[in-house]
Specification:
This protein is of the alpha+beta class. Helices cover 45% and strands 18% of the residues. Helix 1 (37-48) crosses helix 18 (539-551) and helix 17 (523-533) crosses helix 18. The longest helix has 36 residues, at 720-755. The protein is elongated, with a radius of gyration of 31 Å.
Length: 801
């Protein structure tokens, strides 16, 4: 355990590493061993089911589980997918799997698969987040397996078969070009070692080297050249342009030198090795971000499907919400969104408006009540509604219809590339021109080509992607996952950080403060309580379910279906005794100082007191962000009193802290600020604000919609990763400047040699890997640690401690 002292307070906060995932977290009175209740639950489950080998394979670090493990996924789609398979006997399903972060995760899923009857083969691609299941249709229960791994924090989703990852396109090029590079060097090496040009094999070796260089250009070089051309047509410049220029010039002049017997112009081996190294760098860059994207479920929320009443036959038909018109009558199912503002035809129903207003308490509506677009039905039974507006006019459409934002161009790097290209080309022509003035045309060509070859951005092309890879790895250790490399350019300009309240500054679920009242209940009574809250969507019921799961006392019975009374609570009949969970005025027929009570036949069994608890490290993270010079604000749809309460708890300067805001109000406030806002929120009511902000982030919850729209997402029960994002971003910028500075110094030296006519293909083959190794070392030092001398001994230290 380590200690962290905040500069603005004498209070000392203790830090510990989570026993499940290894994430560092702020110790609190409620939590001393785990970073979140999800990790506590899964840790207990792993030990209870004798799966401790997971921790041996995990290596001490994995992603925090978070609260999503306590949610309940609807796997009817999976059952339908299995039933649609007409083949008898073994069948194969390709699915997306979310939540994999280490080799231990792969082992655990495969272990659980083997325990299911009828399972034949389970193959997992952790990098792409895909799983391929082969099983006997008559024995294997696919839904049961999905629910089994869901308990450990992994989710199955439909796989987008049309989507091919960038790393998949790169990896086959990388594999082939590695072989080409080895063969090109193999056939060039004898010449470097002194084989005479008159040797019988010299000609064949030269042709083989030229062949493998050509193949490298076709299978590897074309990747960079194509992308550079596309960027040029779109009036954009990035690192692919100097890479392509170096490849084309070196390859073209090599053929000229080869055909006309000018060995000083032949760089076939350089071309092959350069292509291979650049592909490694690009693969590292793409892999870092793709791993983060694949932790999310692949299925993003699209247009909801509803069951609409036909006017002619009075039957129903399933239609996408985009076909709804004012006056249409349709049905809304449990936990589904109301797509348009509608009038309730059913007698009574409760809806959750948290994604619209941020208020977690469900609202009860009676017949003829107007239900806002974007509300979620909380009741077990479906309800009948009449549309009051067309889909095109609905709030939900406006919130969901957000196109992917354009990538943010790194203008600083673009300027460097432009200056670099102009300088190198100008020096190349200048150097060649000087030798031409001295009447040495052959030397002029050699010098011009040597300048272009030795100045190729090899060190930059592989070192800068490694910096990004290492930076993302640092963030993953804190449970934060960027979804795009654009994140670095965006956070550099951030001066204002805007937080939503519910689910962002507070936990996504209510916290039970008197859980001892539940712990003393008999086992049979806990089974009854588990049964009542098993499928309920009410925030209090969800909190009870989470607490029982963490304690290992969640054991619902089968064959019972609790009756839900909108706005009142749940009731269930067992052995002629009536059990109720809900408001005291209903369950006890009396007032009570609690959020809910659990009773049987009107007798109190337990009272439930819940609070909207702030995340444990909120105050310390706000102080750290303030010390970085960030302006902090809170924009919430919740009422102003609750916003004031959380603002006073944080004890940092927050301007403003506003409540009662609509999604449009949030977006409007951000739009009026300088374009330097980072918006952090978790609900669909933050979607418009995400679009208005320069950058956006979200905590990952049981609904992953916002994570698919944000620039980054984070797991666990704290906000520490948000502050760490700026720390790592600063270290990354320093690493970039160090590498670029070295590249400039290296080019001054190498170009000096080239201008003097001293660079040969052999020297170029030595300089290229040498510069790459130095650049990679700089990337490692600035992102992973720094070198210092302590007590006469050298030691690696973390620059963030």
């Amino acid at each position: 355990m380590s200690m962290l002292v905040t500069e603005s307070s004498s209070r000392i906060d203790s830090l510990a590493n989570c026993e499940h995932c290894g994430t560092e977290f702020l110790v609190s009175s409620e939590q001393t061993r785990f970073c979140c209740s999800g990790c506590e639950y899964v840790h207990r489950l792993i030990h209870d089911e004798s799966l401790s080998q997971f921790y041996e394979l995990q290596g001490g670090k994995s992603a925090p589980v978070g609260d999503a493990v306590f949610g309940r996924q609807d796997y009817r789609w999976l059952s339908d997918m299995v039933e649609a398979q007409e083949a008898e006997g073994p069948i194969t399903l390709a699915l997306s799997v979310g939540g994999i972060s280490c080799v231990g995760c792969v082992w655990l899923i495969e272990k659980l698969f083997k325990e299911e009857p009828g399972g034949i083969e389970c193959r997992i691609n952790a990098q792409r987040g895909e799983i391929r299941l082969k099983f006997d249709k008559s024995e294997f229960k696919a839904v049961a397996f999905a629910k089994a791994i869901e308990k450990f924090g992994y989710t199955l989703e439909k796989l987008d078969q049309k989507k091919t990852s960038e790393t998949s396109r790169l990896v086959w090029r990388l594999a082939i070009c590695s072989a080409f590079a080895l063969n090109a060097m193999l056939y060039t090496l004898p010449g470097y070692l002194g084989m005479e040009a008159s040797s019988p094999l010299a000609g064949s070796f030269s042709w083989m080297s030229a062949l493998f260089s050509t193949l490298s250009m076709v299978f590897g070089g074309s990747y960079f050249i194509t992308r550079a051309c596309r960027a040029a047509f779109s009036k954009s410049i990035h690192l692919d342009l100097p890479i392509s220029l170096g490849l084309v010039v070196a390859y073209g002049f090599s053929w000229y030198g080869f055909l006309y017997g000018k060995d000083d112009l032949v760089y076939f081996d350089f071309v092959s090795v350069f292509v291979f190294l650049m592909l490694i760098g690009r693969w590292l860059q793409e892999r870092a971000i793709e791993v983060n994207r694949n932790r999310l479920s692949r299925v993003q929320m699209g247009v909801p499907v509803v069951e609409r009443l036909r006017s002619e036959s009075r039957g129903t038909e399933k239609v996408p919400s985009c076909e709804l018109r004012s006056g249409d009558v349709f049905f809304s199912e449990r936990n589904s969104f109301v797509p348009v503002r509608s009038k309730l035809i059913s007698s009574k129903a409760s809806f959750n408006l948290s994604w619209i207003t941020g208020e977690s308490e469900p609202s009860v509506y009676t017949a003829d009540g107007i239900i806002p677009s974007g509300s979620r039905l909380m009741d077990t039974n479906r309800v009948k509604l009449e549309a009051e507006e067309d889909w095109t006019d609905s709030l939900l459409r406006a919130l969901l219809n957000i196109d992917e934002r354009r990538g943010f161009q790194n203008s600083g790097l673009q300027r460097f590339i432009v200056v670099y290209l102009i300088s190198v080309v100008a020096i190349s022509f200048f150097g060649g021109g000087l030798w031409i003035l001295h009447g040495q045309m052959d030397v002029a060509l050699k010098v011009s080509l040597a300048i272009l070859v030795v100045s190729c951005p090899c060190s930059i092309g592989i070192a800068l992607p490694l910096v990004d890879d290492l930076a993302v790895a640092r963030l993953r250790l804190q449970g934060l996952y960027p979804r795009s490399n654009d994140i670095w350019a965006k956070i550099k300009r951030i001066g204002q950080i805007v937080f939503d309240k519910t689910g962002t500054l507070t936990r996504s679920r209510l916290t039970i403060v008197n859980d001892n009242d539940l712990d003393v209940l008999p086992k049979e009574t806990l089974c009854l309580l588990s049964t009542m809250v098993r499928d309920s969507l009410h925030p209090v019921a969800a909190s009870i379910r989470e607490r029982l799961m963490v304690k290992g006392t969640f054991s619902p019975m089968t064959g019972y279906a609790p009756l839900e009374h909108p706005g009142l609570g749940l009731e269930m009949l067992h052995e002629d005794r009536l059990y109720r969970l809900g408001k005291a005025s209903w369950a006890l027929n009396a007032s009570h100082d609690s959020d809910a009570v659990f009773t049987h036949d009107g007798n109190l069994l337990a009272k439930i007191v819940c609070i909207d608890r702030p995340r444990p490290d909120t105050s310390s993270v706000f102080k750290r962000l303030s010390s970085m010079g960030k302006r902090l604000a809170i924009l919430s749809g919740d009422n102003q009193e609750k916003v004031n309460t959380i603002a006073s708890h944080i004890q940092s300067r927050i301007e403003p802290a506003l409540g009662g805001l609509s999604p449009q109000d949030k977006a409007s406030w951000i739009a009026k600020q300088p374009h330097d806002c980072l918006m952090i929120g978790d609900g669909i009511n933050d979607s418009l604000a995400f679009e208005a902000a320069a950058c956006s982030g979200t905590p990952i919850t049981d609904s992953e919609l916002m994570a698919s729209k944000a620039d980054f997402y984070y797991s666990g029960d704290g906000l520490k990763g948000v502050a760490h994002l700026f720390v790592v971003g600063s270290a990354r910028r320093r690493a970039y400047w160090a590498i670029l500075s070295f590249a400039i110094a290296y080019n001054v030296f190498a170009i000096g040699l080239a201008l003097a006519g001293l660079v040969t293909p052999l020297l170029a083959a030595i300089l290229m890997p040498f510069s790459s190794i130095i650049s990679l070392g700089l990337a490692w030092v600035f992102i992973i640690g720094k070198w210092r001398e302590t007590g006469g001994k050298h030691a690696w230290t973390d620059p963030y401690e």
